[in-house]
Each structure stands twice: as C-alpha cells, then as structure tokens.
Amino acid sequence: MSSFFPPALENLIDGFASLPGIGRKSAQRLAFHLLTLPEGEAEAFAAAILDARSGIHCCPVCQNLTDAELCTVCSSQGRDKETICVVAEPRDVLAIERSREYKGVYHVLHGVLSPMSRIGPDDLRIKELLHRVGDGTVKEVIMATNPDTEGDATAMYISRLLQPFGIRVTRLANGVPVGSNLEYADDATLSRALEGRTDM
Amino acid sequence: MSSFFPPALENLIDGFASLPGIGRKSAQRLAFHLLTLPEGEAEAFAAAILDARSGIHCCPVCQNLTDAELCTVCSSQGRDKETICVVAEPRDVLAIERSREYKGVYHVLHGVLSPMSRIGPDDLRIKELLHRVGDGTVKEVIMATNPDTEGDATAMYISRLLQPFGIRVTRLANGVPVGSNLEYADDATLSRALEGRTDM
Asked: For the segment B105-121, what is each residue's pLDDT rounded down to a tens digit?
C-alpha cells in the first residue's frame, strides 16, 4: 500500500521519514500539513533549507556552524583564546553559552566516538583540535562531552592525545543538578557527587 | 539567546518548529541533521516539498489528494460509485483501503467540526459532499470519522444534512478491537460493544 499516495507526496513523506526521530506516521502528518499551508509558506520552508545549506558552514577554527568567515565566538575580541571547551555538537555550545559563565572559546567535534555506529576518531574534528593546541597559545582544554559512556570515552581518548602538549586538560564536574531532589538522583551521580565534594 | 545561531540556521529551525508536533529542541536537531547530510540530499528534500506543493491537489470529486485529474479511486472502473465513505483526512482513506474490505468511493472532509479550533461547516468539504449526493446515484453514505467527540458530532451534523435525500446513512461500528484484551478495553468501548452485539 506504500504506493497509494501520488508519487510526489510519497516522495515528501519519504523525505520526512528519513529525518532522525520521525517515523512513517509522523512523516505522513508533516507532509499533509505542508500541503495544507497557505500559499508561499511551504515554499518559504523549502527556501530555508536551501539557504541554510548554501549559507552555513563550519568555522575553520572551532568547527561550530556559522554563516560568516569565523563564528561569533572565534571572531570576538573579548574571549579568552587560551581556554578551549571541547563539545560534541553545536547545540552544546548554545547550552554552555546560556550559563553565561564561560569566557573561553570552543571546539566542536561533531559527534562522539561510537564503535556501535562505526564512528571513529577520523570522523570527528580531532585533528583540527590537535592543530589548534599545537600552536602554543592554548593553556587549558575542558572536555565537555556528555557524561555518558561514549562522551566519557571520547573525552578520555582526546585527553590522551593532548598529554604530549603538557597543557591542563579538565572535565566538567559530575554531581547532583542544582535544584534537583537527592531522592531521585541515580547512584552513579550521587557517588560522583560524593567523590567530588567541595569544602564549604 | 535565540539569535545565537546564524540567521539562516535560525530560519530553518523556525521552519521545523512551525510544523505540528515538533518542538524547539527537535527542530534544532532536525536542522542540524539537514546541515550534515551528504551533498544533494537536503536539496532533494527541499525539491520534494516544492514538487509536492506544485503537483498535488484535491480530487475534484472526492477531495482526496492526487497528482492526476481524478484520484485513483474515483477514476477506477471497479469501484462502487453508489456508496460513499466519508472520512476526515486523506490518511483515513489509506487506513480503510488497507482493510481491503471496502469497494465504494470516498469523500474527504479535510477536518472535523471543532468549535474550540473555530472549524465550522464551511471549513470542511461538506458542500461538495451534498453536491455529489444530489445527483442521485449515491445510495449509501458511511460516516467514517473518528469515534471521538468531534468525529461523532461531525458525523451527526452531516447525517442530518443528508436526511432530505432519503438515502441510507450509516456509521462505522464501535466495539472491542480485534486481537485486543477485554481487560484493557475502556468502559465506553465495552458498552458500545455490548449495545452493538451480533448474533452468532
């Protein structure tokens, strides 16, 4: 029954269904929605895709997404170029920027090591990181990949590669989230919070 | 922080976020995914949107989506034109076709009456249905809107409009789903199943 809809519609449903986290049913719903939008809106959406593809590229320094020659962080005079925060994805940069705490620059790996998904070191922007550290201005690299198995393994792998440079390599602290309830904290988080306890 | 991403990327995220059932976070994920697709794939997706918009319209008879002059069901010689099954959405046609039970034709309302969402009779393809019934070949109209409040109200409203034509107007049976477990059936379904019990 997959050929029940007209080919152009099937094609659009296939397009949506190929996106991550969108199943066949959702893809149908989204395709029908696009077909019922007022004149011009679906066209604007298609144009947004094309514009984003043609206008957006990776910053040659930190590999974050940008539409300028350098990204806003790398081109800013006010950022501390001696500290690099290494994150897995561009959205992680946004999360850390939101804390308004960090004044250094970033490096986006565009993924984490994942043998299950066949993502190895060459699929990440690790060479670019080593190249940046190699020029001698960097004093500290903060590994801010997610505190899960793959994120930890990626942080560990990169920290070993950074050892020869003799710079400080740190990892984001693990612990109980601010405003959370101890009762609902998992064992691993609590034990890390105890390990990393600070003096008051 | 909403202007943290380059405008072209923000624009694409906004586009995804405007689709039904897609929140800001999912929209970000989808936009990033499109940016990392191999050359040509994102462009093909944009083209699929434009093709679907330009090539697909409503069948002038049954209002289902089609890329031909008439839809496949209306243009088929083998379908019983005396029976019209009225559904809310094009996807409902697909669901009923999948049962391989129905040999009549369809009428797609493109929605249901919903005072909360300000969808009244003029927003649905009801006039077109009355026009079809008015030409005298139709003997039965099966109301196959969803068995929920709005679907029931829509079926009731249309069945009243059809009364003057003196044709048979029916509603899909309610009851316990085939292969389901009585234990988990809700009260309303069970009481409808009892009401509509059939002789063995």
From this structure: 999 999 999 999 999 99
Question: What's the rounded Cα separation, in Å, for the pair B162 and B157?
Answer: 9
Whether the per-residue pLDDT at B21 is higher than 50: the answer is yes
Residues A91-115: tens digit of each pLDDT: 889 888 888 888 999 999 999 999 9
The HSE-up count of residue B46 (CA atoms within 13 Å, CB side) is 23
Which residues in chain A have Cβ-Cβ distances shorter than 8 Å to B11?
48, 51-52
Q: What is the DSSP string of A103-131?
A: -EEEEE-SS--BGGGTB-GGGTTHHHHHH
Is residue A37 packed enough to be buried (19+ CB in 10 Å), middle (13-18) or exposed (0-12)? Answer: middle
- Does the distance separating the beta carbons of B45 and A49 come in below 8 Å? yes
* C-alpha to C-alpha distance for B182 and A23, rounded to whole angstroms: 29
Interface touch B4/A34, C-beta < 8 Å:
no
**How far apart are the C-alpha atoms of B188 and B140, rounded to whole Å?**
27
Distance of alpha carbon B162 from alpha carbon B36, whole angstroms: 54
Q: Is A52 exposed, middle or buried (0-12, 13-18, 19+ CB in 10 A)?
A: buried
Q: Choose among B5, B11, B91: nearest Cβ to A65.
A: B5
Tokens of B65: 């989506």
Of B1, B9, B22, the CB nearest to A98: B1
Question: Tokens 């995220």 identify what position?
Answer: B13
